[in-house]
Amino acid sequence: SGNGSLTAAIAERGYAIIGVEPSPEGVRQAQTHFPHLRFEQGDGYEDLKARFGAFDAIVSCEVVEHLLNPQRFMERVREMM
Predict the structure, then answer these.
(1) What is the C-alpha separation between 63 and 75, in angstroms, rounded?
(2) Measured on CA atoms in the order 68, 64, 22, 75, is the torsion positive or negative?
(3) What DSSP line would sit under the chain, residue for residue?
(4) Which of 15, 28, 13, 14 is nearest to 4 (CA)?
(5) pLDDT tens, residue by residue, 4-53
(6) How would you class 9 by CB atoms within 10 Å of its CB: exposed for 0-12, middle for 13-18, buried for 19 or more?
(7) pLDDT number for residue 58
(8) Which residue of 36, 44, 60, 78 is most buried, as measured by CB atoms within 10 A?
């Protein structure tokens, strides 16, 4: 979720959303700027479905190019849908 800007823009349109960010500092920044939204530390390789359940949609921006194993990330995304 980075600094939370995209998460906030989606939430403003009426969607229930959770921002997930691997960086503790990123989570702190997002929570500071958007305290009314939910941000959690985590990454796309872990079992996020076990933590958060299933989702109707998943938005991933500026993530894939940073991954060592994009295929595993996409497998996790499919599990959450």
Answers:
(1) 14
(2) negative
(3) -TTSHHHHHHHHTT---EEEES-HHHHHHHHHH-TTSEEEE--TTS-HHHHH---S-----S-GGG-S-HHHHHHHHHHH-
(4) 28
(5) 999 999 999 999 999 999 999 999 999 999 999 999 999 989 999 999 99
(6) exposed
(7) 94
(8) 44
CB contact burial 46-75 (16+ within 10 A = b; e otherwise): eebeeeeeeeeeeeeeeeeeeeeeeeebee
CA atoms within 13 Å, Cβ hemisphere of 61: 10
Distance between CA 32 and CA 1 in Å, rounded? 13
Residue 29's Cα: distance from chain center in Å? 14
pTM of the model: 0.87
